Amino acid sequence: MPTPVSRHMVSTTNDVPGYRLVRPLGIVRGITVRSRSIVGNVGAALQTLVGGNITLYTELCEKARVEAFELMLDHAAALGANAVIGMRYDANEVAQGVTEVLAYGTAVQVEPGG
């Protein structure tokens, strides 16, 4: 089983502070597709009447991002990476009420010193 990539070794920049890039390993991604349930839609509709944060949708979005992020880390570890740089999220509606969340970046091997 590959060594997992630590969450603190993921950067939205093109480096990991305090580390030197040894080898790029390629693009990695994690994709999840989520739909809203009927119950969730009704609950969210009620929350919109009051205004403010629609917590049911916030929780759904956060779960999707976490799942996509973890899948990206698994993909990076499978390539032998110990870090991911240039990490980003993207989301697209693939059908009404169905959203794809993508976490992606470049898997790299780094070593201390930078």
UniProtKB/TrEMBL annotation:
Q: Which InterPro entries match?
A: UPF0145_dom_sf, UPF0145_YbjQ-like
Q: What's the name of the protein?
A: UPF0145 protein ATSB10_37190
Cross-referenced PANTHER family: UPF0145 PROTEIN SCO3412, UPF0145 PROTEIN YBJQ
SUPFAM superfamilies this protein is in?
Answer: YbjQ-like
Q: Which Pfam families match?
A: YbjQ_1
| Family per similarity comment | Belongs to the UPF0145 family.
